[in-house]
Amino acid sequence: MTRDSYVFVGFLALFALVNTILVANGALSLDWDGLGVIVAAGCTLALYSFLYKDNPLFKFAEHVYVGVAAAYVFGITWYNSLYGEIIVSYFDIGEKGANGGGHNPWVLLFPTLLGLLMLTRFSRKFSWLSRISFAFVVGVGAGLTIPRYLSSFLLGQLEPSLAPLTLSWAGLNLFLVLVGVITVLIYFFFSVEHTGVVGHASRLGIWFLMVSFGASFGYTIMARLSLLIGRISFLMDDWLHLM
Amino acid sequence: MLFLTRTLPFLFCFVFGMTGWVIYYVPHEWAQTVEREIALWLRLVYAFAYFLGLFSLLSLHWSKIRQRQAGWAYSLIVYISFGVMTLFVVYNDGHGPFAAQATTGPYQWMFTSVHVASSATMFSMLAFFISSAAYRTFRARTPEAAILLVSAIIVMLGRVPIGAYISDIIPDTMQWLMSVPNMAAKRGILLGVSLGAIATSLRIIFGIERSYLGGGD
pLDDT tens digit string along A84-99? Predict the structure, then answer.
């Protein structure tokens, strides 16, 4: 046996021993709730074992997660859309789904047909039919994008950037935002050579971008750290009852 | 045949693209109903599209099992965990698949114990990788790199109590960084992205961009 095999077996034995002690002293109940905590702790530790290196324990937990996640999405898709919207509308069975159901079956005929056409991708002979469904999805997506991006992002972002300036701290900040927006746009404008005044403006734009990237980076780190704290707190409190 | 394979999909794209676009500006109840219906249709087509992804995932793992490729046992685990969770989906805490989704039972148990725990762990692991990447790459060699480094440190310190403990200026500076220079850069990027998205959407609707149809006839 290799060193890793000893680590693997040792970890499993230790995990089993810890859980036996926890159940024996009543810290964990011997029911579905207690078993849920043990399974969640096992998944957490198995996935964290990747920090040591890629190992069978991590791969096992990773593949369990993939299978469960795929079936979880199946549950959501079935109860919210396929059953909750389509089947309930066609057949008078069961209860209404999360989205209400009860639509006019004739109106739902078209999207149902489009959905079924999408499944023709499985056939080599009829896969061209799925293009109609993809064209619908892409077309509607493109159509909905234009007005929403125009109003929310383009005009919605331009309006506060061009707000009237005042002789105050707020006015100075508004001016800095305006300078930042213009210089960042200049940096991304490649039709003019970035030399002279344009070059200086472009360089200032890079500085604004660097501040933004740094801020986004710091924000992401802190968000991930809060998740890490959550998992450690789960292991220490809910599982081991040490806190 | 060319009409069915190329022209008909393009017509679909044009008609529904224009409808989705124009209907936004029509302040009539009828237009809002059409918009709601189209959103519902889109949701339903997405639901069918899920099965494409599922088929792709399962066929990939099935080929690994069939050919006994390295690590095929892990592919078997995907099938077992998918099968068990699907059974719980169908069981629906005793109500069966033709009822509203139950909020209790083995499906929820698996969701909380495996899915939620694994998701949170996977995302939290990024904290380690981002930190180690930052340690290796964050060197204040140029003014730009120094700005990025200082900005990241201020935001990180400003988000936790120790930042305010060191100095009251840190949380205030973080707030200013987020709402002024960060906002300015984000706006600049958003304006560019919006123009790009609108231009691409127009190209798709008017049939200039047809790569979504794939190759061949």
Answer: 888 888 886 655 545 5
